[in-house]
Amino acid sequence: MDPVSTNLDNGAMDPEDGSEAVADLGTRLGELQMGGGGDMLIDDYDVVDEKPDVAIITPDDSPEEQEPEIRADDYDAMKLRVLPKDADLETDSEAVHTWAIDGWRHLEKKTRGPKFECGGHPWRVLLFPFGNNVDFASFYLEQGYEDGDEKAPEGWYACVQFSLVLWNKNDPSIYVMHTANHRFNAEESDWGFTRFAEVRRLFAPQWDDKGRPMIENDAVNVTAYLRVYKDPTGVLWHNFLNYNSKKETGMVGLKNQGATCYLNSLLQSLYFTNAFRKAVYQIPTEAESDRKTANSAWALQRLFYMLQSYEEAVSTQELTASFGWETKHIFEQQDVQELSRILMERMEERMKGTDAENALANLFVGKMKTYISCINVDYESSRIEDFWDIQLNVSGNKNLDESFKDYVQVETMDGENKYFAEGYGLQDAKKGVIFESFPQVLHLQLKRFEYDINRDAMMKVNDRYEFPEIFDASPYLSTNADKSELYVYQLHGVLVHSGDFNAGHYYAFLKPTANGHFYKFDDDRVTRATLKEALEENFGGDYAKLNGNVGVRNPYTRTLSTKRSMSAYMLVYIRQSRVQSILHEVSAVDTPPHLAKQLSEEREAAEIRRKEREEQHLYLSIGVVTEDNFKAHQGFDLADWDADEATDSTPKVHRVLRTSTVAEFAKALAESQRLPPEQVRLWVMVNRQNKTIRPDQPLSEPEMTMDEAYSKYGGRDKSFRLFLERASQIEGGKPMWTDIQPPNTTTNNQPMLIFLKYFDAEAQALKGAGHIYVKKQCKVAEMVPMILQLMGWSPGSSALSNGLTNGTPTPPTLALYEEIKHSMIEPMKPKSTLHQAEIQDGDIVCFQKVWSEKEASGIAQAGGYTDAKEFYDYLLNRKTVSFSPKFPSESESEIFKIDLSRKMSYEQFSAKVGEYLQVDPTHLRFSTVNSTTGKVKNPVRRNANQNLYQILSPQFGTYSNNNQRDDALYYEILDMSLSEMDTKKGLKINWVTEGMSKEESFEVLVPKLGTVRDLHQALQQKAKLDDETMQNVRIYEVRGSKVYKELFPEDPVAMLSEFAGLYAERVPEEEQDADRRDFVDCFHFEKEPNKPYGIPFKLVVKPGEAFKDTKSRLSKRIGIKGKQFDKIKFAIIERSIYSKPTYLNDDDKLSTVIGSPDDQLGLDHVNRSKGTGGKGDSIFIR
């Protein structure tokens, strides 16, 4: 097999040489098969090869030219055909190599051809003559590096366009070919075609009616055509497996939380505006409390520093949490311009009074003048305003210059539209906008999304719109502007949207340095980009070449289109004369020291946690309760093992090596208690059947490993808990463990470990007092002297009655209880033995002083418990309830928590809250809390038969009763008692101002037997309205966003439901003297009258008035003007469910077309208050 190899000169070919080549490879890759592993290569190409049936008719007098037949041995001609050149890529080298294959039937299952060179790298053809697990001959191109001396260099790769041509060596007109391109590297060393040609056909008597077979005399040739392309971006044909943005570009991306790609692209743009980053770093945040969640400036500083120093993509969760965003906001794409402005406002607020004050204005703020200048007289009205960005029209404009010309276009005011100039009357005038200055960093918002009046929906404008790399803004400055410094800008960033209005993706092309390259920031991936990718490919418009295809499939909408779905929606330009200062490198000096310190500590802690997770199998988690924990604990058992917050009573969880011994662990614990190791002992704690956790037996084998101890004594729930006992008796320097008896001691009278709790009725506290050892056969009464001695209440003698002896107070009388389990506290009989009382190791005995009737009465009157058993019941039913003001002020001290009993009645817990707030409890009203929104749910009604548990956790009811918090209530301090309130009726009324565009809600109380006049007075008091305003206030009831009826002062309020929709407004001046019969009810709807929304209103009808003039009054009435008002259609609609709208023209007269008092005027326009097309509510940053 003698190879015939032809190597072409390195370098790019003349573009004209490939003029006949097919431009788009994508349509020719349908039969591509993948690498030596034998799996089929399936790529998701954008170009869809779907052609309609077309009849091609060629006139007789102009016969269709036949393409000349190419022979496989004409390498130059064949190369032009099979390797069409990509004009966007630069060729590094080319090669043509032919392998003459002989003895096909005797080849090995996997055969490699001879090596040849292209681009300085070895290559060869890999052949499976009888198929790679298929009935087809399989051919692949393979890089020729071998293991050993010829091993591929570290990080080697090559971007290769190649074609393999199999041809009959005796008749080169017989051939079959396949073409592909691939990024070869050490991991993907071969690529090609598993189903190159069917083996049966290769040996058939003739190939495609050519008269002879493809493989003749067991021989055939295969020619490999290679073109190695240069890869300026480093990601040509990259599959991005194991791609490292930091390693490849020195920069990292931002993680997408769900639909936050728009936020990521904006944040990267601001981050790489280095002067902005420095300004944010100057905001003082080192003294902030709860910085992670409450302060967006602190969170933005952290995010920027992470982008600066981290090796992997950074999460924006901390930042969005500081904005106050919830999950629903994360999955809503918001308006980038609005987000940018709000973010700037928040940062400006934080910069006031600091070194960074005015830093953002100096960067981003320019000035524009809005003017009206008279033509025939010397008069001009103008105002100069600041702007942070400029919104430019895309529709109707071809490029940036045309958009600016459109922006500053002068409108002539003449004819009926003359301008009234003060002192000159009506004058012809010119109206327009001109710029006085542009900022150092110019943000241009391209209006890619516009309202389509024909479709009645927002649509994306995909028209071609060009923008330059260098832009001169001086032609759009006023003649008086300071032009001493050139207003020439260079492109810094292109923010791109791919998709349509309802679905899509955002990413950015940014140029981090003044003279560097553009990079593409696509969420967590950063790649280098070419200038064409950053500019031309984001102009929008039609695709250049579709090769007869229907269109290109949008990956986000899955629809075909001939127009590009990716286009720029925001441009960032930096003034050339300031670019060095704006993009000056951010150094360690510019970074707040406390920021670097804290993030460094967090990374160290994260690394420790990561290491702990990796080594978790080597360790045990062991909870240890000490005597100190027990004494600090107020509750059941020895300690609270499931506490939400760590306190002095919370047992500490230790991470212990499984191979360490009991003695070693005990020694470590002793050192933490500052005790000698021999003075501590560990007891195994067990889960009893009554669901208590008590010490059971000491760990008596010090050399046992902790893993063995866990296997032997660990709980079924995989927990391992221990009690650390300190020796109470030391003799000769050695601890004396009371339960360890001399040999031959009877076992039925062993000392037992008993824990003691003291219920202090005066302090209303129940805490651990310590532990004692008592023998089984001792009587309960014999424990009293031990308790008295432990508490320091007695010189050592037992005393079971109160009184005085020789002037010395006698010890108090004690009552003893056994804490069997949470819900079972039983008094102990003094004469019973501990054995008879079934006491064992680890049991808990509670004691209390016995009070006289007078003492007990005083404690009870103070709201306390005098009996330990009652107090245990309180603990069992204890509920910590959070109380928040229903109408909060700025003081956070109004939010508080109180421990209450679930068994408390309404009167009892309101008394506790009143005591805390120092207000009369009869003036308190409570409301439940919605667990989903955190807002007020329902008022709590007083009911003598209902306790706190039933109020917080309704047992029987609908879903609406269940989705409420069981640990929180809102409270409201009333001006009157609840009894008096029972005579009142609660109503909600909306006060409408500013042309129906603004409303404020008030909850008012009026007498149940009162009139609407009382409602007027209550509104005046709540809304703080003056008497003059109240003389012309109109109140009307609304149902289903339509006026139901107007309410007059003498109407009774009893007819109003407490859920009635009530609206109040100041009657417009033109309507104050109108007759009630001259009004028409108006409402808003979208397309169909049965879809009303918004605030309805009344309008006075003027006899004979053309509707054109009525519309002028309507515009003023509802506060909508200009283009937005022009989109509204008006119709007369009867007050019935199925009525059809009759739309009005400007020449119609409302007084004529209204034929019935039931006729209403409908305003048909888009409901912009609802979410549309995945767009959320108005964005906010708290």
TrEMBL record:
Keywords assigned: Hydrolase, Nucleus, Protease, Thiol protease, Ubl conjugation pathway
Catalyzed reaction equations: Thiol-dependent hydrolysis of ester, thioester, amide, peptide and isopeptide bonds formed by the C-terminal Gly of ubiquitin (a 76-residue protein attached to proteins as an intracellular targeting signal)
Organism domain of life: Eukaryota
A molecular function (GO) term: cysteine-type deubiquitinase activity
An example Gene Ontology biological process: proteolysis
Pfam family, one: USP7_ICP0_bdg
Listed InterPro entries: MATH/TRAF_dom (IPR002083), Papain-like_cys_pep_sf (IPR038765), Peptidase_C19 (IPR050164), Peptidase_C19_UCH (IPR001394), TRAF-like (IPR008974), USP (IPR028889), USP7_ICP0-binding_dom (IPR024729), USP_C (IPR029346)
Annotated EC: 3.4.19.12
Keyword Transmembrane helix: no
Protein name stated in the entry: ubiquitinyl hydrolase 1
Organism phylogeny: Eukaryota, Fungi, Dikarya, Ascomycota, Pezizomycotina
